[in-house]
Amino acid sequence: MNIYSWNVNGLRACTRKGFVDWLHGSDAHIVGVQEIRALEEQLPKKVREPENWHTHFFPAASKKGYSGVGLFSTVEPDQVLTSVDEERFDREGRVQIAQYGKLKVLNVYFPNGSGKNRDLSRIPYKLDFYNHLLDMLQPAVDRGERIIVMGDFNTAHKEIDLARPKDNTETSGFRPEEREAFEDWLDAGWTDTFRHFCDEPERYTWWTYRGNCRERNVGWRIDYALASPAAMEFVVDADIHHDVMGSDHCPLSVTLRRDVLG
């Protein structure tokens, strides 16, 4: 079972750049997209209702053209929840919790720590989100549930995860408190699936549009798929698909044995 995550940086824009063709041509069974930046009725029908795919969209209620997550799957989910029981997070359209048999998949757009003027004012909100979601899932982890949390975490974990770590120690996304919040997930037993299989440097998921950074591979790895201990028993591969265009991010994937559902 192939599960993909992709920050599309505007689903309408990504659709104009070939998202639906990519979706139909992929080997994916579940695709979670972040930063859709649109209401469902604003999306073209071909992306709202792609043939042979079940869809679910959760846009931000706080303001139009901001945040939002979407889910595509060839297997119909048993249910999709969108609340993490805290209104300040729910109104920004950040989480979908989909149940597929015994597998729970969370599609998440974690907050960026930068404020409107890149003043780091959103870091407390970001850290609260990290901690709240981790605490919310802990009882399910303790029960041995199979859970994948995937999405744009907006944090590079270690120096290997960005091209210029020394230049970005004060930048949101690589500040110590943000990296510690990510580390808390690993300390709680979650596995960074890509790093489990690959310790190569220069494997990134996001590149700024400025300065031909993608062509020069000056990027950051800020998108992840984390597996709970019970889910990790079924994980057989994970990858980053840097050759897929259409956004300033690229997709990542995690592959699990099909029996994870049952």
UniProtKB/TrEMBL annotation:
<feature type="binding site">
    <location>
        <position position="152"/>
    </location>
    <ligand>
        <name>Mg(2+)</name>
    </ligand>
</feature>
<feature type="site" description="Interaction with DNA substrate">
    <location>
        <position position="249"/>
    </location>
</feature>
<feature type="active site">
    <location>
        <position position="109"/>
    </location>
</feature>
<feature type="binding site">
    <location>
        <position position="35"/>
    </location>
    <ligand>
        <name>Mg(2+)</name>
    </ligand>
</feature>
<feature type="binding site">
    <location>
        <position position="248"/>
    </location>
    <ligand>
        <name>Mg(2+)</name>
    </ligand>
</feature>
<dbReference type="InterPro" id="IPR020848">
    <property type="entry name" value="AP_endonuclease_F1_CS"/>
</dbReference>
<feature type="domain" description="Endonuclease/exonuclease/phosphatase">
    <location>
        <begin position="5"/>
        <end position="249"/>
    </location>
</feature>
<dbReference type="GO" id="GO:0003906">
    <property type="term" value="F:DNA-(apurinic or apyrimidinic site) endonuclease activity"/>
</dbReference>
<keyword id="KW-0460">Magnesium</keyword>
<feature type="site" description="Transition state stabilizer">
    <location>
        <position position="154"/>
    </location>
</feature>
<feature type="active site" description="Proton acceptor">
    <location>
        <position position="249"/>
    </location>
</feature>
<feature type="binding site">
    <location>
        <position position="7"/>
    </location>
    <ligand>
        <name>Mg(2+)</name>
    </ligand>
</feature>
<dbReference type="InterPro" id="IPR036691">
    <property type="entry name" value="Endo/exonu/phosph_ase_sf"/>
</dbReference>
<feature type="site" description="Important for catalytic activity">
    <location>
        <position position="223"/>
    </location>
</feature>
<feature type="binding site">
    <location>
        <position position="154"/>
    </location>
    <ligand>
        <name>Mg(2+)</name>
    </ligand>
</feature>
<feature type="binding site">
    <location>
        <position position="249"/>
    </location>
    <ligand>
        <name>Mg(2+)</name>
    </ligand>
</feature>
<dbReference type="GO" id="GO:0003677">
    <property type="term" value="F:DNA binding"/>
</dbReference>
<dbReference type="GO" id="GO:0008311">
    <property type="term" value="F:double-stranded DNA 3'-5' DNA exonuclease activity"/>
</dbReference>
<keyword id="KW-0479">Metal-binding</keyword>
<dbReference type="InterPro" id="IPR005135">
    <property type="entry name" value="Endo/exonuclease/phosphatase"/>
</dbReference>
<dbReference type="InterPro" id="IPR004808">
    <property type="entry name" value="AP_endonuc_1"/>
</dbReference>
<protein>
    <submittedName>
        <fullName>Exodeoxyribonuclease III</fullName>
        <ecNumber>3.1.11.2</ecNumber>
    </submittedName>
</protein>
<dbReference type="Pfam" id="PF03372">
    <property type="entry name" value="Exo_endo_phos"/>
</dbReference>
<keyword id="KW-0464">Manganese</keyword>
<comment type="similarity">
    <text>Belongs to the DNA repair enzymes AP/ExoA family.</text>
</comment>
<dbReference type="GO" id="GO:0008081">
    <property type="term" value="F:phosphoric diester hydrolase activity"/>
</dbReference>
<feature type="active site" description="Proton donor/acceptor">
    <location>
        <position position="152"/>
    </location>
</feature>
<keyword id="KW-0378">Hydrolase</keyword>
<dbReference type="GO" id="GO:0006284">
    <property type="term" value="P:base-excision repair"/>
</dbReference>
<dbReference type="GO" id="GO:0046872">
    <property type="term" value="F:metal ion binding"/>
</dbReference>
